[in-house]
Amino acid sequence: MEKLIEILKKYNADVDYNTHEHLIDEEVLDSFDIISIVADIDREFDVEITAKDIIPENFNSAKKLYELIESLS
């Protein structure tokens, strides 16, 4: 999870990713951020996040995003 938090902090360092649960709903991350984050995650975690995985439910919190990464590993 620590590596994921480091990735997310590149896009908005002011957010507490350990507790924030509405990253998409509250527009903390935008579509350009998401595309870049997906590329970073694919590279860092050696997984492939596909278009069907890019839904708000998977990106609203670091916890949910990490669960997605684990399910793809």
Question: In a few lines, what is going on in this structure?
Answer:
By secondary structure, the protein is mainly α. It has helices spanning 2-9, 31-45, 56-59, 62-72.
Which CATH class is shown?
Mainly Alpha
Which word captures the global form?
globular
Strands, count: 0
Structural class: mainly alpha
Residues in helix, %: 40-55%
Topology as H/E string?
Answer: HHHH
- C-alpha-based Rg, rounded: 11 Å
- DSSP summary: helix tally: 4
- What CATH calls the topology is Non-ribosomal Peptide Synthetase Peptidyl Carrier Protein, Chain A
Low-confidence stretches: none
Main sheet properties: none
Looking at CATH, the homologous superfamily is: ACP-like
Approximately what portion of the residues adopt beta-strand conformation? under 5%
How many domains, as an integer?
1
Average pLDDT works out at 94
Q: Architecture in CATH? A: Orthogonal Bundle
